[in-house]
Amino acid sequence: MLNNRNPVYREIDAACLPIEGRLPPGLQGTLYRNGPNPRPGEASQHWFLGQGMIHAISLGGGQAIYRNRWVMPQVNLTPQLGKANTHVIAHAGTLMALEEAHAPVLLGPDTLAFHGHGCMTGRFTAHPKHDPATGALVFFAYAAEGRHTRTIRCGSLDARGHLGWETCFEAPFCSMVHDAAVTARHIALPVLPLAAAPGLDEGDALGFAWQPGLGGHLAVLRRGAYGSEVRWHEAPPVYAFHIANAWEGHDRLFLDLFVYDVPPLFPTPGGVRVKAAPARPCRWSVALEGRDPVRVERLHDMGGEFPRIDDRHAGRPYDQIYYASRSGVEQVGFQAITRLDLSRRAIDQFDFGLSASVSEPVFVPRGDDAPIDDGWLMSTVWRPEWAGSKLVVFDAGHVADGPVAAVILPQRVPDGFHGSFVPDVFLDLEKSR
């Protein structure tokens, strides 16, 4: 999925961008997207290894502005600083560019300038979770004591960015734990058999291989507890990069995740790559007391990736998942935006066509007091006949109707990973705390 044929090499600023349709009047803020983008002359054997680049599209007053910057200044590109190429979020008045093998990189929200690493050191997840009730940021890290170690670290930063709770525990093996489930009281981490394989060529496989014989495990730990209190549950020997949401109810912990029978992009320990079918949305659950095996329920057959929700309801029961999906089983990458209504187990989808490339959809509420899932979806999309990508805006409740507006960007945004929409007022409030 990495755009090797036409990667973006230029850092530019562009204002007064052309707009198709009409941007919603209340949409005021910036969509930040992060992804791997090799610098000129650099080769990247694996999609995950390019240098992080932030693409920022700011909206307001019916206008749009674009800016893109590599996360790391050229002088700071060292192995110790990592790639910072997977996600970008706002917390405690600043931006955090994230990946899972190094500490966060802090950026200026307006300039995207490099601001160092703040208080965090060591490994840090690309998928921390905001607690909407407290403003805390719950994080974790696998291989926390060094490459291929079994230690998992969990903790949280408060709303001001100060380190609070932190603890560690040992996993049965070193698994690539890309995402975790967080509820109001617990964190749950899937330890699945995409596991360390030191004998592999690290440049191509990142030192990890598919080893289903190791089995699957789900670690559940109460937030604020010592690592020694972790409970282990047997899980299927499958893999999931991303978790849509988690919550507690009826004495059980539930998590919705996108599950592969075999993960893409990674080989077996012998170096053999197996063709992977798209991930399918599934629901796992375990009892909050005891150590029962994971119960599994298939949510829908429409596969895809990069699930997002209305983040105001993270850690609580919810109704809708938004994700990128494919036009057909044989397609590579993603060409469509899909909404999965969990109450009806039905989908609402818009397909941009077989040759399109669609990024993760990001949900933006229509207003601070809007009901759950009342808002907009934003995604960057590219087709071969377009000179650049487009930022498309959907009414989240009517995806099949197509975009209500599209901003024409001055260059292609390469296939990347994750992003966040940050309202203008959010950063102002964070700075005033």
Topology (SSEs and partners):
Blueprint: E1 13-14, E2 19-21, E3 29-36, E4 52-60, E5 63-70, E6 87-91, E7 94-98, E8 105-107, E9 129-130, E10 137-141, E11 151-157, E12 163-170, E13 181-182, E14 186-191, E15 194-196, H1 202-205, E16 208-210, E17 216-222, E18 231-235, E19 243-249, E20 252-259, E21 280-287, E22 295-298, E23 305-308, E24 320-325, E25 336-341, E26 346-351, E27 357-358, E28 362-365, E29 375-382, E30 390-395, E31 405-408, E32 419-423, H2 424-432
Antiparallel strand pairs: 1-5, 2-31, 3-4, 3-32, 4-5, 6-7, 7-8, 9-10, 10-11, 11-12, 13-14, 14-17, 15-16, 17-18, 19-20, 20-21, 21-22, 23-24, 24-25, 25-26, 27-29, 28-29, 29-30, 30-31
Please, could you describe this protein's structure?
- Strands 2, 27, 28, 29, 30 and 31 form a six-stranded antiparallel sheet that branches.
- The longest helix is centred in the last third of the chain and has 9 residues, at 424-432.
- Residues 1-6 and 426-433 have low confidence and may be disordered.
- The protein contains two helices and 32 strands.
- Helix content is 3%, strand content 39%.
- It is mostly beta strands and 433 residues long.
- It is globular.
Distance between the termini: 40 Å
Number of strands: 32
Radius of gyration based on Cα positions: 20 Å
The multimeric state of the shown protein is: single chain
Class by helix and strand content?
mainly beta
Low-pLDDT stretches: 1-6, 426-433
Mean pLDDT: 90
Helix percent reads under 10%
Strand content: 35-45%
Q: Given the C-alpha coordinates, what overall shape results?
A: globular
Separate helix tally = 2
Largest sheet: 6 strands, antiparallel
